Structure to design on (559 residues):
């Protein structure tokens, strides 16, 4: 290939994707801005934002979403780290384990919600098990909206469903770390915990960053799991966006909620990027 | 390690296996439970306490679900949307993936970073403005509109995955083909494409599952022409338990099956990190 002549080929190949993403990803985002901050007659307004903030459900939705993220993401990270470190132990049958550990990647949030509903519902499997063990003599109403049980069920369902993505990202990261580092640390007498804490985790930082950003952004828009388990008993931000669009027929307020979700997503991504800053010399 | 006796090392090893198996059970048991629920007859589903090891297997509940109104049409809709999504994102995304894998050009890194950062773009933000636009275009409640949105969701991953697939196909083979008289296009279709096919198929299956599972956008963008998850979702609160359990099982099974076929590509599909 002649290096001096400008080569159009790669740009032509990229063009369809770039156009598609501009039309159906970037442009809708600007439109969401328009819907959130522009009245139907075209003038700019903060009405929709004020209505969202003063909405009865808003603070509940925000608090629930934040509480769920705080409960879910650290649990997922710890569990995924344990799973990933297990894979590094070269266990027998680890092929099967990798497949089982990654099955939840393919499970939709709705299916996960229904599955955990079948466990926690009044005549469900958890009550049956507790009866069988002699703990209960009649079914306990777990999904009672006054209690914290629906929250716990949602946390379990999300940890069950979405830990796999963190696991896969961490394993991919671990595989790219040369074993020499940990072996060197072992020669100098570092025990297993020291090696993980001082050697593996710092080197794993780029993967940890990616996994946490991805997981938190997906958790901010949590939707079907919550509805399938708690029904109307509990609401989250994405659920409010859905309700304002489908039930109250207000695209403006729905878009305002959507913008709010975007702001939170960007905010958390920024926090992670700052907190887990990857220094130049850290990149292998 | 060296100071430890072989006995205590054995105990540690045993504990490691125990933890690994316990985590596997934690993942498998809920899948087992929804499966026995879906294969239980109605009266068993409403009974309490339930046996964790059912004696009778029945298709009654699954038949009830499939024969319910709207279920079969929405199943068809789901397949149509997922296939459209798969084809469009591969046709648009694979060339971009190829470009990222084969060429060095100005702006490549910026494009890559932009693709990586849109991979986690919240679908909630796209759905609402696009629903308003599709309404204007007369595409509302049309399966095409759901597919368009699913492509927007899947395209960044398709580009990244196909790029890593083409990186895995040796560039020298293509160059050798051109030496032996193939044109640039022929070298691609006769040499690179056949070698890349398994990876591209894995990427396509991944896209299919992504679309098959998606609830929010499908629910927002359709009214009559629901996809299966959208149909299940809007009817959920008003549905009897057998309908819910069979529905949950029904959307779960294709996803798990496809997962089995692409298990070799797991890490190239999901393990991509910002570096």
């Amino acid at each position: 290939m002649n290096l001096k002549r400008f080569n159009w080929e790669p740009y032509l190949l990229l063009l369809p994707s770039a156009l598609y993403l501009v039309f159906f990803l970037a442009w809708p985002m600007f439109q969401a801005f328009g819907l959130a901050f522009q009245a139907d007659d075209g003038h700019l307004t903060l009405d929709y934002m004020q209505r969202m903030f003063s909405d009865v459900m808003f603070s509940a939705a925000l608090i629930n979403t934040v509480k769920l993220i705080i409960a879910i993401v650290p649990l997922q990270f710890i569990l995924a780290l344990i799973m990933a470190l297990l894979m590094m132990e070269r266990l027998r049958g680890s092929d099967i384990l990798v497949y089982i550990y990654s099955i939840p990647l393919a499970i939709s949030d709705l299916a996960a919600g229904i599955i955990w509903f079948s466990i926690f519902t009044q005549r469900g499997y958890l009550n049956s098990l507790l009866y069988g063990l002699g703990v209960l003599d009649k079914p306990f109403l777990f999904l009672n909206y006054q209690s914290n049980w629906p929250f716990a069920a949602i946390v379990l369902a999300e940890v069950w469903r979405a830990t796999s993505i963190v696991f896969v990202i961490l394993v991919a990261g671990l595989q790219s770390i040369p074993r020499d580092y940990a072996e060197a640390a072992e020669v100098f007498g570092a025990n297993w915990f020291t090696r993980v804490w001082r050697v593996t985790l710092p080197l794993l930082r780029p993967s940890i960053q990616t996994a946490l950003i991805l997981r938190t952004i997906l958790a901010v828009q949590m939707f079907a799991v919550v509805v399938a388990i708690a029904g109307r008993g509990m609401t989250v931000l994405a659920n409010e966006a859905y309700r304002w669009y489908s039930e109250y027929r207000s695209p403006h307020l729905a878009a305002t909620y959507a913008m709010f979700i975007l702001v939170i997503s960007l905010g958390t991504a920024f926090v992670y990027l700052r907190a887990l800053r990857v220094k130049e010399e850290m990149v292998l | 390690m060296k100071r430890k006796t072989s006995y205590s090392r054995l105990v540690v090893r045993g504990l490691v296996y125990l933890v690994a198996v316990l985590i596997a059970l934690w993942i498998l048991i809920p899948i087992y439970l929804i499966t026995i629920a879906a294969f239980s007859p109605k009266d068993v589903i409403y009974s309490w306490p339930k046996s964790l090891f059912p004696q009778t297997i029945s298709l009654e509940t699954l038949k009830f679900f499939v024969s319910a109104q709207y279920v079969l049409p929405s199943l068809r809709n789901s397949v149509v949307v997922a296939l459209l999504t798969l084809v469009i994102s591969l046709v648009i995304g694979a060339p971009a993936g190829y470009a990222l894998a084969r060429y060095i050009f100005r702006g490549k890194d910026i494009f890559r970073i932009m693709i990586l950062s849109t991979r986690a773009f919240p679908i909630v933000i796209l759905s609402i403005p696009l629903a308003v636009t599709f309404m204007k275009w007369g595409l509302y409640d049309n399966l095409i509109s759901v597919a368009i949105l699913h492509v927007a969701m899947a395209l960044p991953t398709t580009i990244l995955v196909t790029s890593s697939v083409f990186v895995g196909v040796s560039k020298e083979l293509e160059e050798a083909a051109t030496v032996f008289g193939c044109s640039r296009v022929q070298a691609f279709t006769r040499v690179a494409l056949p070698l890349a096919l398994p990876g591209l198929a894995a990427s396509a299956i991944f896209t299919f599952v992504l679309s098959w599972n998606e609830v929010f956008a499908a629910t927002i963008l359709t009214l009559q022409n629901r996809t299966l998850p959208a149909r299940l979702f809007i009817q959920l609160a008003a549905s009897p338990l057998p309908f819910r359990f069979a529905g949950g099982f029904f959307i779960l099974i294709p996803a798990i099956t496809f997962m089995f076929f692409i298990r070799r590509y797991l890490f190239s599909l999901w393990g991509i990190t910002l570096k």
Chain B has two domains: 6-61, 69-270. The CA atoms of residues 117 and 250 of chain B lie 33 Å apart. The two ends of chain B are 34 Å apart (CA to CA). The mean pLDDT of chain B is 89.
